[in-house]
Structures are given as C-alpha cells and as structure tokens.
Inverse folding.
C-alpha cells in the first residue's frame, strides 16, 4: 500500500501526465495495409503453412502488418478457398508463444477480451489481475461487446462467471464495471469533484470501515477526466489521509483492482507500460501479459505506451522485448510495436 501513498502524492504534485491519455484511439502502431488483398494474403498464408518447416516469416509479415478488420477478411477468404478455418490450420502448424500471438491477432477485439476473461477464470485459481486489467481499462462499448461475445462463444453470462470466482469488495467492484454504465463525459463537474474528494478524505480519516464502499462507488462510476480532478482536489484535503486508511483497509486483489482504476484514469498508457515492465522483470517473462497488452493495444494506444515505457524506464520497449524473448515470438512482437 505504500505505493498508493506515493502515487497519490505524485498526483498532488505533478500535472505532467494530464492529457496524455486523450485521443488515444489515434495512437495505434498497426494500421490498415493500403494495398490490401484478402485473397492474396489467404493464398500466402496457405503456402506458408504448407511449406516444409512452416514459413513463419511470411506469417509474421501478413498477420502483424494488417489491421484487425483486414484479418477478418483474410479469415473469410481462407475459409472460402480451402474449406477450413484459418485459426485451425495455424494452430496445427505453430506452437508455443508464437502460436498464442497469431491466434490472438485473428480474433476480433471483443473475442480476444472474452477469451482472456474466460482463461483468467479457468481451472484452479483465478487470475484476478487479468479481470481487473480488462474491465478497468475498457470503454463501456468495449465491455458491452465483450459481454455479448462471452455469452455467444461460451454460452454463459460473464457476471455469473465472475460471481462464481471472486467475492466481497472485489466482486462488487468488478460487477459494477461489468454494468458498462460508467460516465464517459469529458466535461468536469467541479462541485462534484470537490464533494467526492471530501467524501474520500472523510471516509479515510474518520470511518475506516466505509473506505471501500466509498472508493468503489467513486472509482467505478466517475469518468476518467472526473477522477483526475478528484485526485487533485483530494491533495488539497490531505497528503496522506486516504492512503493511510487504504493501507489498513486494502490488500491483495482488491488493492490491485482499485489501483488499476486510479492509474488508468490518470495515464492509461503509463499503466500499461508498467504492466509490461513488470511482466519482463526478474526471472522469467510473463508472456501471457506481454501478448495480451501488445495485441489488445496495437490499434489503440501502443505508440503512446512505447513512449511512456521509454520515459519511465530509460530504454525502449523493443529493447526489453529483444532481451527477454526470442525466435518468432520476438519477431512478431517487434513487428506489432512498429519501427519507432
């Protein structure tokens, strides 16, 4: 919890990150190929798959250098010409982390989010951090599309699955986000920001038991722009009240979930840059996290994530990827990152 205190202190003192999250839809690294031809690409992939030893370089070139919408057209063209799903053919031909990235890129964004949510709740132990990351960083439209796809693909209601996997305040937070009713208004209500900041302060200072319900309500209902203003006003009430209360109240998965909402509101690309850094830090690399973030943000704000990574860690994301990964997996991640 010490980090929460440090983070809130940074918010009180530093306005430099404000605005870096705006307009992120224009900052993808993967763009549509202007000379796109679905039939040609489908034929290239067919040859690459059938080549002895598999022509992985061509698979990288085609899959990573096309937009998601174009990949859907390639899938349709491949199915039409061969009678078989492209994903099935690639699954047989590829393996390991490289296979994971390629199959992820073939899914639509709602399909991939639903797939990752399902995988996070599969088997023994739930990966709560994945649930928090996806629900805490997607728009209402993206969450609604994911929920619909989850029902179509897995025949289950996402909220019911979450209820069976988590409980308590974490369940309350995730289900609130699942409603996809969070404000997305860019206009800031100054009076509401002041009253919310005061409510958080009073809950933290005087009524520790109510901190969770107060902060959950604020963080899951206010827009990201509104939250940034609340964080700034909170600093005028206290430098440590909320953080101190949270230190005694929160831990583990709930803390991680609420911190996701705080960090994503303040600077979403920086949040993802930190997640990528942690995925490659220490012994072993968390390739699931690496793949999920790079694939899911490649047409949204990966360019900004790359910029934030350099600012925060003094080296490029591409340098970190080259150090921590190898083979075709490394090549396709670098292709998705583009040439900056």
């Amino acid at each position: 919890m010490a980090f929460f205190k440090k983070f809130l202190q940074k918010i009180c003192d530093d306005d430099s990150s404000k605005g870096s999250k705006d307009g992120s839809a224009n900052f993808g690294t993967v763009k549509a190929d202007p000379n796109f031809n679905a039939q040609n690409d489908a034929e290239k992939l067919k040859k690459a798959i059938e080549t002895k030893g598999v022509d992985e370089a061509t698979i990288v070139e085609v899959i990573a250098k096309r937009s998601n919408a174009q990949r859907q057209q390639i899938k349709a063209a491949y199915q039409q010409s061969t009678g078989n799903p492209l994903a099935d053919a690639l699954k047989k031909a590829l393996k390991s982390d490289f296979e994971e990235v390629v199959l992820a890129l073939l899914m639509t964004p709602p399909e991939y989010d639903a797939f990752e949510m399902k995988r996070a709740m599969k088997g023994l132990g739930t990966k709560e951090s994945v649930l928090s990351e996806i629900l805490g960083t997607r728009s209402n439209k993206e969450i609604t599309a994911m929920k619909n796809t989850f029902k179509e693909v897995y025949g289950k209601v996402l909220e019911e699955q979450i209820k069976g996997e988590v409980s308590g305040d974490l369940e309350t937070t995730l289900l609130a986000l699942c409603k996809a009713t969070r404000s997305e208004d860019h206009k800031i209500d100054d009076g509401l920001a002041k009253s919310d900041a005061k409510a958080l302060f009073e809950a933290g200072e005087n009524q520790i038991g109510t901190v969770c319900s107060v902060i959950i309500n604020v963080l899951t209902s206010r827009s990201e722009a509104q939250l940034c203003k609340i964080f700034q006003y909170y600093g005028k009430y206290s430098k440590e009240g909320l953080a101190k209360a949270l230190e005694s109240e929160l831990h583990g998965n709930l803390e991680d979930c609420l911190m996701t909402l705080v960090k994503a509101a303040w600077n979403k690309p920086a949040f993802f840059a930190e997640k990528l850094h942690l995925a490659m830090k220490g012994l072993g690399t968390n390739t699931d996290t690496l793949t999920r973030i790079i694939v899911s943000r490649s047409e949204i704000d990966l360019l900004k994530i790359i910029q934030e990574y350099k600012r925060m860690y003094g080296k490029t994301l591409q340098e970190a990827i080259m150090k921590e990964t190898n083979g075709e997996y490394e090549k396709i991640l670098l292709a998705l990152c583009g040439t900056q």
User: Anything to note?
Assistant: The domain at 38-106 is CATH 1.10.220.10 (Annexin V; domain 1). The chain is about 70% helix and 0% strand.
